[in-house]
Every structure is written in C-alpha cells, then in structure tokens.
Amino acid sequence: MVEVTLWGSLGAAAGGKNKVEIEAKDIRELFRKLAEQYPGIEPLIDRGIAVAIDGTIYRDTWSKELPKGAEIFLLPRLAGG
Prior knowledge:
The protein is globular and about 25 Å long. By secondary structure, the chain is α+β, with helices and mostly antiparallel strands. The model has no long low-confidence stretch (mean pLDDT about 90). The chain is built from three helices and five strands.
C-alpha cells in the first residue's frame, strides 16, 4: 500500500481527495487502479501525468517500482505556451 498525493485537477477528479492509498507495485498498476477507483482520473492519465517518487520525476517509466514508504506525488500535465 502506498500513499499518493494528487495535485490540482487530479484531486478534483478523485472526488476532492488530495491523498489516496493504493495497493500497487509499480506506476502502471497505480494508474490502472486509480482509473478503476476514480473513473474521472482516466482522461487525465491519458493526457499525461508526471509521477514524482521521493523527489525524482518519472514521465515514461511506468515499470518503475513503488518503494514502501516512498513519497509519491502525481502531477497533471501543464497546458499553455
């Protein structure tokens, strides 16, 4: 079980929750389980989400394992230009 902090629109898509606990071994499984529990998050995942694990940002490494006790933040893709 990992605790995940959801920033910005991700929290709103999870029913206003800024932190959730999910049983997941890697980023791919984390995204899958989040989409199952909070269907409103799935379009945001499809657009792109950055995952910060203990201060390191992962953008395309969905097989990255989630260490127990890690600080995990999900950040939606920023738009603009």
